[in-house]
Design goal:
11 helices, 84% helix, mainly alpha, single chain, Receptor-associated Protein
Length: 270
């Protein structure tokens, strides 16, 4: 039952399909094109992109959506607090926000409002929302709201406190991104210098040291070695940049993709 539900997620199906397709390309490449340097390298790049790129992109898109929901959640809480201030109960205040624009959060707000209109238990509705959001921050906030509502406490004060704490978390996150901007720039510059060094070694130093052999099998071995070094360095440099800038290794994949693409293009041109 759990496996069937797991496979119903289109993201899971796409991830599995991309990995299988990548292995097929890799097998065909090794079997038929291993002796053709340009084709072998390009097909390997495509296989790696399919096996890692699509799953990482799906994960990054999910993470970005969660981040956007967390960013809009304080605005939602402020609107609910304002509605409570007019004399509404908490469920009424939430239903009154259903037409407001909260970007990715809007879908969940409309769903909450619809479920409340259908008469579904208020606590169950909020718990379902917290689970679907996949955000640990929102799960903690919803738990606090439910406990306050259950105990009869002043909900508006709790909502204000949660909203302020959420805003502070986002402010700290953005300040961290700004503070590491120079490190991100340095990471890109260092990698581009590394590309230049690899190209210089491949085009000038190795031929000068190897003589006529450098243009034959000997040269191909070094070209493959430099290509592999650039790919490995690009992938891990990008992941490190993402971790520093956004606090997530998955967020670094877009940097990895840019670095590896630039390196591969430079190798093909030079």
């Amino acid at each position: 039952m759990k496996i069937t539900k797991f496979l119903q997620d289109p993201r899971v199906v796409l991830t599995i399909a991309s990995i299988i397709f990548a292995f097929i390309i890799f097998y065909i490449n090794v079997t038929y094109f291993s002796h053709i340097y340009q084709v072998f390298g390009m097909l390997n790049f495509i296989a790696i992109f399919l096996a890692l790129g699509i799953p990482f992109y799906i994960k990054y898109s999910t993470t970005r959506k969660i981040r956007e929901i967390e960013e809009m959640f304080p605005n939602f809480l402020r609107d609910v607090t304002a509605n409570i201030g007019t004399g509404m109960t908490l469920p009424q205040a939430i239903r009154a926000t259903k037409d407001n624009d909260y970007k990715s959060l809007s879908k969940y707000v409309k769903e909450i409002s619809a479920k409340l209109d259908w008469g579904i238990d208020f606590e169950k509705v909020l718990n379902d929302f917290a689970e679907k959001s996949n955000s640990s921050i929102i799960k903690r906030s919803v738990k606090t709201i439910i406990e306050t509502h259950r105990s009869g406490g002043k909900v508006s004060s709790v909502l204000d406190a949660i909203s302020e704490s959420q805003q502070m978390i986002e402010r700290i996150r953005k300040e961290r991104q700004a503070s590491v901007y120079s490190q991100i720039l340095n990471g890109y510059i260092i990698y581009f210098v590394f590309i230049g060094v690899m190209i210089a070694l491949s085009r000038f130093l190795i031929p000068a040291l190897g003589g006529a052999e450098a243009t034959g099998e000997f040269g191909k071995i070094f070209k493959e070695m430099f290509r592999n070094l650039l790919i490995i360095q690009g992938i891990f440099s990008g992941l490190a940049i993402g971790k520093m800038a956004e606090g997530s290794v998955f967020a670094g994949f877009k940097h990895s993709l840019v670095l590896v693409t630039v390196a591969y293009t430079a190798l093909l041109l030079f």
